[in-house]
TrEMBL record:
Residues 16-54 form the Acyl-CoA thioester hydrolase/bile acid-CoA amino acid N-acetyltransferase domain. Residues 106-313 form the BAAT/Acyl-CoA thioester hydrolase C-terminal domain. One of its GO terms (biological process) is fatty acid metabolic process. PANTHER family: ACYL-COENZYME A THIOESTERASE 1-RELATED, ACYL-COENZYME A THIOESTERASE-RELATED. The active site is at 134 (charge relay system), 228 (charge relay system), 262 (charge relay system). This is Acyl-coenzyme A thioesterase 2, mitochondrial. Belongs to the C/M/P thioester hydrolase family. Transmembrane segments: none annotated. It comes from the Eukaryota. Pfam families: BAAT_C, Bile_Hydr_Trans. GO terms for molecular function: fatty acyl-CoA hydrolase activity.
Length: 313
């Protein structure tokens, strides 16, 4: 059967209107090259091409978790799905019937997501991966520490302590790391710098917020922006490494990026230097120098894919 190409909308369209091209009636796994060309009214030739191979699966599975912005960001999961992964973008508060805050979270909810992926016919076992940034990073560390079936975890500027609210799992509770708002600094532009607000998880009662990473059977990759002004991500990554090694676990891979801020996004996303902090209700700086941050996002995207293919493949 010959392939069918459908163009929507049919006929002419303006350049600011999206065009959808659908190729159907293909054999399973059939490689496809689609080429298009256009000569404008001045005679200039524009050409484009795309390659596609419909892989049958199953694929390595990943749970993707963001920070305290809430809702359900799906763009990173969508991009990774195009790289050969089965990805679940997981909301955990501020979305539909989920909790309205992070004040109290239950790890059983996250366990359901892991088990769903593990049992999905299009997900390759025996374990799944975790990808978390900011608050999503410490949630991924907690998941890897308490839950079964997690093989690899990438933590992007995450905390080694539970932050923001109590985290419950069965008969155990991780209390939130303490903080002192009096340690907030104000930049010359009037933004809050919250880098020093959190207490150390190595001292006093705050030690009870330290995530028991030594329980984990996962392999870890920490991606760290050394100009992160949300919290001390490099310190947290190093403390996680010390705890793991002290209990005979494998030393995690830590990649540090000088001049890079908190929000390490996929490549070519603009640097977010400051924005509203959902929990504090005020505008804060996130750090980062534009050139260094842009280059780090390209490298970090490559590194996390290499890591997941190695440990989930």
């Amino acid at each position: 059967m010959a392939a069918t190409v459908t163009l929507e909308p049919a006929g002419r369209s303006r350049w600011d209107e999206p065009v959808r091209i659908i190729v159907s009636d293909l054999a399973r796994g059939q490689p496809v090259t689609l080429r298009t060309s256009l000569r404008d009214e001045k005679g200039a030739l524009f050409r484009a091409h795309a390659y596609s191979v419909s892989e049958p699966g199953p694929f390595p599975g990943i749970v993707d978790i963001f920070g305290v912005g809430g809702g359900l960001p799906e763009y990173r999961a969508s991009l990774l799905a195009g790289k050969g992964f089965a990805v679940m973008a997981l909301a955990y508060y501020g979305y539909e019937d989920l909790p309205k805050s992070v004040e109290t979270l239950h790890l059983e909810y996250f366990e359901e997501a892991v088990n769903y992926l593990l049992n999905h016919p299009q997900v390759k076992g025996p374990g799944v991966g975790l990808l978390g940034i900011s608050k999503g990073g410490d949630l991924c560390l907690s998941m890897a520490s308490f839950l079964k079936g997690i093989t690899a975890a990438v933590i992007i500027n995450g905390s080694v302590a539970n932050v923001g609210g109590a985290l419950h799992y069965k008969d155990e509770t991780l209390q939130p790391l303490g903080f002192d708002q009096n340690r907030i600094k104000v930049t010359k532009d009037g933004f809050a710098d919250i880098l020093d607000v959190l207490n150390s998880p190595l001292e006093g009662p705050d030690q009870k917020s330290f995530i028991p990473v030594e329980r984990s059977e996962s392999t870890f990759l920490f991606l760290v922006g050394q100009d992160d002004h949300n919290w001390k991500s490099e310190f947290f990554a190093n403390e996680a490494s010390k705890r793991l090694q002290a209990h005979g676990k494998e030393k995690p891979q830590i990649i540090c990026y000088p001049g890079v801020g908190h929000y390490i996004e996929p490549p070519y996303f603009p640097l977010c230097r400051a924005s509203l902090h959902s929990l504090l209700g005020t505008n804060v700086i996130w750090g980062g120098e534009p050139r260094a941050h842009a280059m780090a996002q390209v490298d970090a995207w490559k590194q996390l894919q290499i890591f997941f293919h190695k440990h989930l493949g």
